[in-house]
Amino acid sequence: MCGIVGYVGPRQAAPILMEGLRRMEYRGYDSAGIAILDDGELVIRKAAGKLGILAQELVGAEPQGTTGIGHTRWATHGAPTTPNAHPHTDRSGRIALIHNGIIENATAIRKTLLARGHEFISETDTEVLAHLVGAFYEGNLEEAVASALRDVDGAYGICVISADEPDVLVVARNGSPIILGIGDGENLVASDQSALVEHTRSVVYLDNGEMAILTPDGYRVRTLTSRHVDKPINQIEWDLATIERGGFEHFMLKEIFEQPESLENTMRGHLLEESGNVRVYGLKMDDEQAKAVKRIIITACGTSWHSALIGKYMIEELARIPTEVEYASEFRYRNPIVDKDTLVIAISQSGETADTLAALLEAKRRGASTLGLVNVVGSTIAREVDGGLYLRCGPEIGVASTKAFTSQVAALAMVTLRFARLKDMSLLEGQEYVRAMMKLPSQIQEILERADELESLAESFKDSTNALYLGRGVNFPAALEGALKLKEISYIHAEGYPAAEMKHGPIALIDENMPVVVVAPRDAVHGKIVSNIQEVRARGGRVIAIVNAGDEEISQLAEATFIVPETLDLLTPILTVIPLQLFSYYVAVARGCNVDQPRNLAKSVTVE
Known about the structure:
Layout: E1 3-8, H1 13-23, E2 31-38, E3 41-48, H2 51-58, E4 67-73, E5 88-89, E6 95-103, H3 106-115, H4 125-136, H5 141-149, E7 154-162, E8 165-174, E9 179-182, E10 187-190, E11 202-205, E12 210-215, E13 218-223, E14 228-229, E15 234-235, H6 251-257, H7 259-267, E16 271-272, E17 277-278, H8 287-291, E18 295-300, H9 302-319, E19 323-327, H10 328-331, E20 342-348, H11 354-365, E21 369-374, H12 380-384, E22 387-390, H13 403-422, H14 427-448, H15 451-461, E23 466-471, H16 476-490, E24 493-498, E25 515-519, H17 526-538, E26 542-547, H18 552-557, E27 560-563, H19 572-590
Parallel strand pairs: 18-19, 18-20, 20-21, 21-22, 23-24, 23-25, 25-26, 26-27
Antiparallel strand pairs: 1-4, 1-10, 2-3, 2-4, 5-6, 6-7, 7-8, 8-12, 9-10, 9-11, 11-15, 12-13, 13-14, 16-17
């Protein structure tokens, strides 16, 4: 959500800023802008719409200067218009500021500044913050920013420059990520590693309440109250090639096809076949601490919430620990029952999801142990939890999550095995579980080799206006995830339901125009879901079924089937979700939708 990039050094800033913004387009945005310090003056260029519109306006008129900031905005305060686009300036027009997050007391600050004669040209909270910084400015940008932020309530990641201090970037964070890129004779700042990796792999992650001052020669980090902070320099582990499309038409398709490798990376070094167990040092729980866990709460949003539901089935079935799944956005507002015997697992691809982070912090405040499953090294959730497991599935650029989902489920399967082997799971059962997990990457590859079947199927259903996704047991969350993917990227309304719940309302929607996607592997509830398919057929519904080989019963009932390999029941969603991802992708392409950047969505949701 939103993108921040800044540069100070010897090179022309504008091309670096524009390229950095381009690499963060996947996060979702609706306007863009840059500010460059050009010979003692601020030059600002911004435009509503995609980055290409701004790029076109800069052709032949690119601002010259070696210090600058750039931003892509996802609208919160005010519509996506050019006046509301960042950067915003202060009253003097000599200070420019870009901002991710929400200033919660912006209305009160605006009223105070209006009373002092300030005039505003936008509807944004960001312009209010820029004016507030200007109101404190007395020749020292660092102190003006610190003073302004001490008056601010809310979440922010900001980057500020002043025409009166041409070689200085001031940045600060509270709840919205800011990363420093440490170069040789130049320094950068961004809200996402992808904007930095072309220039440096050495990065510093700011924590909440910290600010940094960057010049071409170095950087320093402090708190808002002037206390110096020593920060370690970390190394980005991936290279530029991983965030390029690599010959695929879209990032989403590339990431779907990366899943054999990404799943292998998630599990690598953890699975112990001989002992039927896992080695996960990141959990930071010894056997006695793990045995002391009496209850587990998994909190997440969106796709991660669906993986959490699968984790609940796994943990309760194999480890026999009561497990609840909570929408992170609701968790801290309902006075949850959490104590020292509770383990709270927070799941977030980005590690920056604002609602999930807030839920995690609330759980910590109430005394729970915490565990994070995140993909981005150095992310806020990864730094806040007691222990955790990095997914290591590589950068995910497509807004609609695919490979992160399967890696999350695999990570939950490993966490489950760790607890189950401490309970009643036998050595033989553990070995069977590990062997089944080890086969998953090759089984996904088998599915991907038949992707053309789903491309043909998508053409038949591209004009649908509604769809129903059904599953039972552990494949009910897979149905939810399939429905989410379809509506995210194709804009077809789709809903996921437990198959038996269909007759309690949704069955009224079914007619000859309604595609019903049924996730129906040969598992413990297979006979029940056959009956549910019969109910759909009796009302003229068009059934697409995800099945195992040799399932003649469902093949005779369904208009179309897609075969997935067999695995243990609890692991089937890792396989059944792959054709659902592909089907959604091909439907969206057939409808001419923007697959990688669907409307109104952001990759990393850093506001509540």
